[in-house]
From TrEMBL:
Protein name from the UniProt record: Germination protein, Ger(X)C family
Domain Spore germination GerAC-like C-terminal: residue ranges: 237-406
Domain Spore germination protein N-terminal per the UniProt entry, residue ranges: 42-213
Membrane topology: Lipid-anchor
Keywords assigned by UniProt, alphabetized: Germination, Lipoprotein, Membrane, Palmitate, Signal, Transmembrane, Transmembrane helix
TM regions (residue ranges): 21-38
Source organism, top-level taxon: Bacteria
Family according to the record: Belongs to the GerABKC lipoprotein family.
An annotated GO cellular component: membrane
InterPro entries, per the entry: GerAC_N, Spore_GerAC-like, Spore_GerAC-like_C, Spore_GerAC_C_sf
Amino acid sequence: MDVFSLEEESGCLMKSSREKYMAGLMIICLFIILSISGCWGKREVEDLAPLMGIGFDLGKKPGTYLVTQQYAKTKKGGNSGAETEERTLGAEASSVREAFDIVSKAAYRTPFMGSLKVIVIGEDVAKAGGFNNMLDFAQRFAEFRRSMYLVIARGKAEDVLNLKLRSEQLPALYIRSIIEGGHDLSAFPMVRLGHYLTVLGTKSTAPILPVVEAVKDGEGIHYKAEKSDEAGEIRVEGAGVLNGDQLVDFLNDEETKGYMWLEDDVFNRLINTVDLKESTVKFSGQVLKSNTRYKVKTDGGNFGLTYQIRTSIAIDEVLGLERQLSGTDWVELVKEAEASFAEVIQKECESAIKKQRELGFDFLGIGRHIEQRNPKYWKNIKERWKQEVSDFPVSFDIKVTVHNTGMSSSSATNSEGEGQD
């Protein structure tokens, strides 16, 4: 056999091997593609009913709950948004799964749980306790996410979710918007399901949830109602302290604001000194930056906790200024403003501490701070912490700095020479 025949035979063998290799590779790729689930079980968006809010209330029958489900319905004409008309449905059942099954039979589309934004816990359920059994469904079902918000309703959750708002928004989405804009107020906590479950796991810290309520014209706000029976608006104010999953008591606005300072959760707070009786000049301001740290101290074997709060504030208003001030006088007035703002902050913090001592539940997480700063000491007192929390020494070190006083060194009532023709 000559050289050319050998080369030709070798080339044929290489070509045959390459073809077999490519054929085998194609078979493997085809097998992998067929093994991937892909979108075989997909559901078109237009065939789904996105769930936006769930409300839990006690049912009429013992052992049952009224589960209110709010779904979004796309507005006709292709406009963005959602409307509540005929899309808020409720069912009385002994479990959340049973309630979903009942509602699903009446829903015009397949319910989609992955879009849930807020869970509203009715006041009666919160006081009775045991709503963790319903939240258990929310954390186990694959479509739910732990990023959903938890709130307590004053009254019934069903009533809150069935409100017809003047903005025509879904109440569930409206509540979500208020909560997510809460950094601009820093007046109530923002609690997601995942955070709530984490706090439950600490055992020493009592969970806390923001409170929502329906308000009508004249109940703190004023607006022009088109109809006399119009339900009103939704407000998020205050918080509820829980023992496990049972509501112990509500915090008022001042106590909740104190909680926010001590929790280092203040960003853009509005603050004023109007209620300080000993000061003739009143100030209003906005928090620019705030930082709260804590220090566990020991003094001759006696332990205590000191909160160190450092806050920068811009003055928005000066009320009651009756004379034109010199530059030196204005500097002194700014120092007075800093002391007045610090007094307001301390008053709010003391209100929160006082409430915690009255309740005997550590919603401020002081036990958690002790454990982090002094694990050895915490190990000795954790078993009796419920008894210790009511009188554990707490002090404050608050310092306010005014970094912006506006463009005027006088009030509008005595601004001689500061205007322009």
